[in-house]
């Protein structure tokens, strides 16, 4: 037998060799201890930076948000001239206008915030601002279909991602169409007059005070076009910063997957969609999460509809916050009219006609995904309808 030393007995573990206790061993132990202390200190610094960075990011995003709203309000006169040249007025025209703008932004939130600034600047009336907000949500629903299509090309040619996008489009369209009409009726009825009193006194003055040192000199020196471009840039930057500091749920974590499995009933999925969207403040992001969850089989196809219905309500969290920042008292009633109308229509569907409604939406989505011609027709409608509304 090769080797030195006594043979090992079966079942007896060889004794652990002792490290030499000379100067080399002492130095090695000291180096290891110093390394562990360094790693612990580094971890503490990383955690401290995280705790400092998140609040700082939120404050920076809020300042950019306020700055953007005030810059856009200052530029509203020039936008009014542009809309006049394009003969864009009335809720339907502005619905198509907001719809198209959200395509360019790949998000509805910046367009909804822009509508409130135009309302504050006197460019839009209350029903027109509501129409533009509704249009921003129609356009944002296309983002989910684009994500599903990318997942289809990049993955195993599984059509579930496209299916989720089509269901999101159909659900948003069938809920928001009657909800927009109801919201316009609520504004015209005067039921929400005085709702601006719910905003804390001085809140708008505070927002104006922190933005005035920068907005007023720019308003005096720059043209309307430059002010508008600066406002849009600041608005997009604010949402970009918000996206970086808010929890990242894409791809969904195992915890999100476990939560989604627990919410099996339509009402529970409705609440789940509302909860995730209130956290992410983006219906495009929260509904996009459905794509990988559906591909994995975590979320069943029948659970998609109530999830999207809930997400389409709490997506107005950031818009309602923006309404409290603009000086005009008309902004809060406009957003509350849209939120109330979407909530009322969604609750009626969920409590009274959910079964037939969900079966109709899912069947239409199945036919659309299964037939390429129907899918092309849907995409053509998504491109043509806003142009048609803009031309009315």
Brief synopsis:
Helix content is 77%, strand content 0%.
**Which structural class fits the helix and strand makeup?**
mainly alpha
What kind of sheet is the major sheet? Answer: none
Number of E-state strands: 0
- State which percent range the strand residues make up: under 5%
Our count of helices gives 17
N- and C-termini, Cα separation: 97 Å
Give the integer mean of the pLDDT values.
76
Helix content: over 70%
Shape, principal axes of CA atoms: globular
Topology pattern, helix = H, strand = E: HHHHHHHHHHHHHHHHH
Gyration radius, to the nearest Å?
Answer: 27 Å
Domain count: 1
Low-confidence stretches: 1-5
SSE blueprint:
Blueprint: H1 23-74, H2 76-85, H3 91-105, H4 109-120, H5 126-154, H6 160-189, H7 203-221, H8 224-245, H9 254-262, H10 266-280, H11 283-288, H12 290-295, H13 304-314, H14 317-325, H15 331-351, H16 354-370, H17 372-391
Helix pairs in contact: 1-4, 1-7, 1-8, 3-4, 3-5, 3-17, 4-5, 4-8, 4-14, 5-6, 5-15, 6-13, 6-15, 6-16, 10-13, 13-15, 14-15, 16-17
What does this structure look like?
It is globular and about 55 Å long. The protein has one domain (54-391). Residues 1-5 have low confidence and may be disordered. It starts with 22 loop residues before the first helix and ends with a helix. The chain has 392 residues and is an all-alpha fold. α5 runs antiparallel to α6. It has 17 helices and no strands.
């Amino acid at each position: 037998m090769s080797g030195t030393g006594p043979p090992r007995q079966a079942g007896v573990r060889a004794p652990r060799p002792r490290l030499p206790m000379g100067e080399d061993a002492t130095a090695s132990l000291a180096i290891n201890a110093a390394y562990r202390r360094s790693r612990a200190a580094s971890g503490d610094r990383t955690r401290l930076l995280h705790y400092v960075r998140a609040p700082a990011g939120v404050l920076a995003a809020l300042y950019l948000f306020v700055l953007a709203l005030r810059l856009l309000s200052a530029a509203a006169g020039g936008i009014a001239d542009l809309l006049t040249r394009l003969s864009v007025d009335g809720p339907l025209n502005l619905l198509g206008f907001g719809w198209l703008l959200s395509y360019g932004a790949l998000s509805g939130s910046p367009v909804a915030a822009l509508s409130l600034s135009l309302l504050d600047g006197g460019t839009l009336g209350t029903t027109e601002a509501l129409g533009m907000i509704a249009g921003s949500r129609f356009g944002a629903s296309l983002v989910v279909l684009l994500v599903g299509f990318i997942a289809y090309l990049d993955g195993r040619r599984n059509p579930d991602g496209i299916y989720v996008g089509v269901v999101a489009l159909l659900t948003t369209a069938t809920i928001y169409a009657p909800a927009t009409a109801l919201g316009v009726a609520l504004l015209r009825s005067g039921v929400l007059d005085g709702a601006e009193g719910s905003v804390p006194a001085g809140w708008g003055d505070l927002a104006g005070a922190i933005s005035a040192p920068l907005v007023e000199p720019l308003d005096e020196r720059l043209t309307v076009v430059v002010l508008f471009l600066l406002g849009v840039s600041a608005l997009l930057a604010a949402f970009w910063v918000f996206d970086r500091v808010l929890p990242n749920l894409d791809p969904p974590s195992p915890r999100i997957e476990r939560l989604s499995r627990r919410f099996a009933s339509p009402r529970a999925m409705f609440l789940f969609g509302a909860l995730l969207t209130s956290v992410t403040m983006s219906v495009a992001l929260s509904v996009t999460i459905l794509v990988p969850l559906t591909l994995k089989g975590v979320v069943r196809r029948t659970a998609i509809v109530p999830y999207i219905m809930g997400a389409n309500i709490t997506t107005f969290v950031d818009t309602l916050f923006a309404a409290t920042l603009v000086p005009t008292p008309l902004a809060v009633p406009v957003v509350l009219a849209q939120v109330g109308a979407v909530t009322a229509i969604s609750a009626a569907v969920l409590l009274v006609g959910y079964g037939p409604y969900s079966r109709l939406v899912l069947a239409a989505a199945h036919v659309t995904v299964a037939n390429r011609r129907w899918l092309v027709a849907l995409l053509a409608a998504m491109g043509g309808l806003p142009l048609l509304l803009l031309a009315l």
